[in-house]
TrEMBL record:
Superkingdom per UniProt: Bacteria
Protein name, as recorded: Transglycosylase domain-containing protein
Domain Transglycosylase SLT: 170-235
Keyword entries, A-Z: Membrane, Transmembrane, Transmembrane helix
Top-level taxonomy: Bacteria, Bacillati, Actinomycetota, Actinomycetes, Streptosporangiales
Presence of the UniProt keyword Transmembrane in the record: yes
Natural source organism: Streptosporangium nondiastaticum
Length: 246
């Protein structure tokens, strides 16, 4: 503030001196023209001497230089602040992106674990159902009393008691196509015999000596054959559909 006041005084003083100089000079010129050359000359020289007061004006130039320097410093600081703010914003954005990526990965991992757990649960449930289904068929061929003859309904009832529930329909489909549930059915050309058309029929002796007359013995052998060769009656039925034999 002191420097500013000084500038004002210098400016006013310089202006006043310059004005006085101009007026005096004009007057001197007029005086010379009027014939009063000596007095005019003295006044002009005196006024010229007074103009040395303008030497103080360069102080104002220093003030302007200082102001320009301060302005440049302010601009530099402003640019630095903007650069720092931009850098901070970029760093914050980078951290946020990293956090978002981490959260996304964790969510995906959690979803994968949940899906895996659900699949394992379904697999256990399936296995339990298969075990229950297998346990539901507990009757053996020897548990049926021997008879001289059996109706189709009786033979089918035996099969339902011996074949697991989820496999019975496949077993039934094969028997329907092979013998239509006739436990004495014989293929004249090949010699296949019984409900499941064992070829030759003597294979069923491994399940019981009464394989010719006891449908339960034939069912026992047929079920074992399907399980051993195709994994299950349904596996055997899938093969039969594709080849018309099994």
């Amino acid at each position: 503030m002191l420097e500013g006041k000084r500038v004002s005084r210098i400016s006013v003083r310089g202006f006043a001196v310059a004005s006085a100089t101009a007026v005096t000079t004009v007057g001197a010129v007029v005086g010379v023209a009027a014939g009063h050359d000596q007095g005019a000359t003295d006044r002009v020289e005196a006024t010229a001497a007074d103009t040395t007061l303008l030497a103080d004006i360069p102080a104002g130039q220093n003030v302007r230089a200082q102001a320009a320097s301060l302005t440049q410093q302010a601009d530099t600081q402003s640019e630095a602040a903007e650069t720092a703010a931009k850098k901070d914003a970029e760093e914050a954005a980078r951290k946020q992106a990293a956090e978002d990526a981490t959260a996304k990965k964790e969510a995906a991992d959690e979803a994968a674990k949940k899906k895996e757990a659900e699949e394992k649960a379904k697999e256990r449930e399936k296995e339990e159902k298969e075990q229950i289904s297998s346990r539901s068929a507990t009757r053996d061929a020897s548990s049926f009393p021997a008879k001289s003859s059996y109706s189709v309904a009786e033979v089918q009832a035996m099969a339902r008691s011996m074949v697991p529930g989820d496999q019975f329909q496949c077993f039934s489909n094969i028997v329907n196509n092979e013998s239509t549930w006739d436990y004495t059915a014989t293929n004249a050309s090949s010699g296949a015999y019984g409900l499941v058309q064992a070829l030759p029929g003597t294979k069923m002796a491994s399940a019981g000596a009464d394989w010719r007359t006891n449908p339960a013995t034939q069912i026992k052998w047929g079920l074992g054959y399907m399980n051993e060769r195709y994994g299950s009656p349904c596996g055997a039925w899938s093969f039969w559909q594709a080849n018309q034999w099994y």
